[in-house]
Design brief:
Blueprint (H helix, E strand, L loop, with lengths): L2 H6 L4 H21 L44 H12 L4 E7 L5 E8 L2 E9 L7 H9 L3 E5 L9 H9 L3
Amino acid sequence: MGFFDKLFGGGSEAGKAVEDLFGSLLNGAKQQNRPQNSQQPQPVPAQPAPAYEKAESGFSWGDVMPDEPNQYNFGGTFTDYFETIFREDFPGTVYSKQFTGYNNKRIVYTFTAGGTKKLVVELMNQFSRAQGVRNECAREGVPYLRFYYDHHGWWNTRAYVKDRVGRYL
């Protein structure tokens, strides 16, 4: 005995009518939830590959290490890496090196020519919020660059470092 039989009395015409109506509504709802044309596969929209999957030369960021010299495939410390670029790609430039910040985690290179500051390069931790050296350079009108030495996906490729530093030296 169903719910509607109990509600309207067993075997009544009203009970059967309500049960039929309810059954029709229930079947209609089930039909709407079924996928249409389920026999034919639906095309999957093509999604472009994210740019970071390409390890193109000249790009210094992304999840894939570029196939060119960078601070992670150098084989030495990041300071050795940057200093090698400074020496080999900018021969004859004079720079001084200063450790600064909490636990000396920031390294500041000051490039000079003829006793004049030409460029300041700061190597720093990705979480550093230090602005002192940057602000001092702005007051003095000296070009300032910073490189993060521990930021995931930032490779500091040799071409990238050379290009940025070379604009000012």
